[in-house]
Amino acid sequence: MTIEFSPLLPWIAIGALAALAALLAALGLVQRVRGTLVRAVALAVVALALANPILSQEERAPLSTIVAVVVDRSQSQQSPERIRMTDAALQGLKDRLAQFPQIEARIVDAADDPDTESPSTRLFTALNSALSDVPPARVGGAIFITDGQVHDVPGINQPLGFDAPVHALITGRPDEFDRRVEIVSGPRFGIVGEEQVVTYRVIDDGPTPDGPAEVTISLNGQEIARQPVTPDTDIPFRFTVPRGGNNILEVAVAPLAGEVSAANNRAVHVLDGIRENLRVLLVSGEPHSGERAWRNLLKSDAAVDLVHFTILRPPEKQDGTPINELSLIAFPTRELFVEKIDQFDLIIFDRYQHRGVLPIIYYDNIAQYVEKGGALLIAAGPEHAGPDSIATTPLAAVLPASPTGSMTNEGFYPRLTDEGKKHPVTRGLEGADSEPPHWGRWFRTVDVDRPQGQTVMQVADGRPLLVLNRVGKGRVAMLLSDQGWLWSRGFEGGGPSVPLYRRMAHWLMQEPALEEEALTAHATGRMLEIDRQTIKGDPGPATITLPSGRQESVTLSEAEPGLYRTRLQTAETGLFEIANGDLNTLVHVGAVDAPEFKATVSTTALLQPWADKTKGLVHRVAGEGNQVDLPSILPVRGAVRVADAQRLSLRMTDETVLKGVTSLPLFAGFLGLAALLLVLSATWYREGR
């Protein structure tokens, strides 16, 4: 109870009256006036009544003690055994805390942040968020249910924001072990055909069995090496970059029986293959209007080393000019088609005919070059339909179509075939969507028999115009017209000659992005995008194998003709394997060095310092069989000064909340009236004596 004053007059007036009363009382006492003491008491009571004293009593209710329970739901906690332990420990802890009505449990699940590429276990961040609106005096403690692999443990001298015990209930068993593999170093880019070195390491956590680890290394989904390695040793691995674009090197270590997780038994290194100085040999059979279109296109690419020859004077041309007076350069046939033919990435025969410049055996060399993985482009003109056509040489073995010997000379709009609308070489060419196509006409084509491979462009009546085919390990393209230069010159508005020629050249050089049957995937943050390129129709669903080993089936929807796509947000991070039919690909979602996969063996070491500092307890919940062993709860009034080795100590708060105030004026009503009557009666009685 407390006494407060609510004066009826200003304090200055009450003080003046009290001073006057005190002066009169003092004067009466000095002069020994009878009744002075009674009068002084009466005046004091009147002054007190004017001060209006009020008796107040507060009604308070005790506040609950807040205990934060942070549950680790990160990927390292997703094994069936740890999920079972975590759920059982959480339920048991709820039951124990429910026995104390004054304790309020705040339970928060700490999962991986879906917006980050590098998953990690951030339990202290979740703890601060859960207690952000709680006064420090009300916090009774914090309890973590985790495997102990926490990646945001603050420094031991940093403040937590409250003075209460920190406890940890550790899932997993003390004899756990795990084998994992990490990429130590490797290049980000590599030149196609050159050797690169990636260093990896197999790491054993816990009491793993002795002996070497069996490692399998794959490149772009194809196994290229198997080797036994010693754990905890850096192992360099040398390989040759096979192609341009994205290359995925996968290092997988054989799992151990009983290890914690196989999700970290594979590591990937992504390397972009770069073609250095692509070497292209362009042989023009004679000067013509379209010759410069090819030359300008190839010379405009800084990554292309172009070797261009134009046959100006064939051997049969005899005009009597002495050889020593000719300024022409002799065609180095042996050097180009025997000694250095394998150094070229692409050979182009532009309106070339067999006129005795190349010995017949050299055509066979070119055919073998193609079958071994080379690229050949035939840009055909009228000479291809004549008696000197290269189709009459051994090169015919790799050509996708044979000429009939006739030409068609009439205007037409080049059109895409059904396959051409789906093929990445011709799909989406600007102007192809309208009818007739929104580009200029051509006026000459070479008639051929039924071609092999894919016909992606045609004349209006269905005759082939552009044919693509695979021969052995190599590729061949035939453009059955020499009129493409009309597009380059802007005739009737021109056409997409540059993208068409460039795509043809890159497809011939086996650029992965232009494969007609391909499955690719890439990730942006946690968003996974899968593309399926096909010219055969709906490829059906794709199967995704997640890092945890779980499989999902996803539907691919047609985004463009011949291109099927799906996008999905992933909850897990790590190495994903996507399969569709005979094709499969790998993609890594998130950072390749994410902390969540570096160590998965449960541990008490990381949280023990904070438990020691705050008088908390770190306890493994694994009991016999499938049972969980949970400590009991120990409420403590005041500061927790001693740690209990068997119980979870919680500091109980003394905080209260004001529910109401009862006020009683002492000089109000009958009580005040009785007090005034009493002093006045005493004064009257004394005067009457």
From TrEMBL:
Keyword annotations: Membrane, Transmembrane, Transmembrane helix
Tagged with keyword Nucleotidyltransferase: no
Superkingdom: Bacteria
SUPFAM superfamilies the record matches: Class I glutamine amidotransferase-like (SSF52317)
Transmembrane spans: 12-30, 37-55, 664-685
PANTHER family noted in UniProt: BLL2462 PROTEIN
Protein name: Glutamine amidotransferase domain-containing protein
Originating organism: Xaviernesmea rhizosphaerae
